[in-house]
Write a structure and sequence with these properties.
Length: 268
């Protein structure tokens, strides 16, 4: 049986989210690409990469208030905002794909804005047949947080986390892994609370003490948004794991099914 792993690399790892400028974290990127290569060299597996938009997407999305209702006369202004965001996240994606291709890894970008549509910020349409076709030919499809057309709101932003949920629901992966900049889920934000308690397993949103989304600028929900998407998957019997991709070799180990500290999101 061929293993299919859906791996998300968070915007927090790949960009400097606190900065107003679009800045890639090329040290983290290079290291993570190296870890992925090492694992793929060990044994063949199908892999889909999802990445966040980080500082390339969120400030633009915030500025243009994409995903909020607007008056008819604002349409042209919102539309150009949509274009600005689409272009900004595409630039990040190109830098990421550059790093993979330099290592000889066959990545192919499949932007959500080119085939996904939403209804009130939830993905409702997007034919994933092309993912299956690229996977069958040995490619590594790469998709990322993006803007898409929305039936209710005209336009909206969809997070890499919602994309993970949609892909996992439809592609029957062996493993769903999310790499971020903390060890996993805590009862409160570990970056602002020294006494935060770590969960090895997380099964209910009620286990959170606060709904503080994230320390980073994020219009798509931060950790809380992530957990909600993953609990939805857990409801359908699909487990996922959040790990710290800042810790060297964690991505390699998780791809090798070795033990890595992290939080499993599961209802059982
Ligand atoms: P990414 O860009 O990697 O997808 P985000 O920045 O959106 O990740 O979310 C990760 C951040 O969420 C962490 O840096 C952390 O500060 C914050 N966070 C807020 N609440 C929690 C919590 N209860 N447990 C873990 N992290 C949390």
């Amino acid at each position: 049986m061929i293993i299919l792993i859906i791996l998300k690399i968070g915007g927090s790892i790949l960009t400097n989210k606190d900065s107003k400028e679009s800045q890639i974290n090329s040290v983290n990127l290079k290291r993570i690409v190296g870890e992925i290569k090492k694992s793929l060299d060990n044994s063949y597996k199908e892999l889909i990469i999802v990445h966040g938009a980080g500082s390339f997407g969120h400030p633009h999305a915030k500025k243009h208030k994409i995903g909020e209702a607007f008056k008819k006369e604002q349409y042209p202004q919102k539309r150009i905002g949509f274009c600005e965001i689409q272009n900004a996240v595409k630039k990040l994606n190109m830098l990421i794909c550059d790093a993979f291709i330099e290592e000889g890894l066959p990545v192919v970008a499949i932007p959500a804005s080119s085939f996904i549509t939403a209804d009130n910020k939830r993905i409702v349409g997007g034919n994933l047949e092309i993912f299956r076709k690229y996977l069958a030919k040995g490619f590594i499809p790469v998709i990322y947080g993006d803007v898409v057309l929305d039936n209710e709101l005209e336009f909206c932003v969809i997070s890499g986390d919602q994309i993970i949920q949609y892909l996992a629901l439809n592609l029957n992966p062996t493993q769903v892994v999310l790499g971020t900049d903390v060890d996993g889920v805590f009862n409160k934000n570990p970056k602002t609370h020294d006494d935060a308690i770590f969960y090895e397993k997380f099964s209910s949103i009620e286990d959170l003490d606060t709904f503080e989304g994230t320390t980073n600028v994020d219009v798509t929900g931060g950790m809380v948004g992530k957990i909600k998407e993953l609990l939805y998957l857990a409801d359908l019997g699909i487990e996922s794991k959040i790990i710290n991709a800042e810790v060297e070799d964690n991505i390699y180990k998780v791809l090798e099914s070795e033990k890595v500290k992290g939080t499993i999101i599961s209802r059982s």
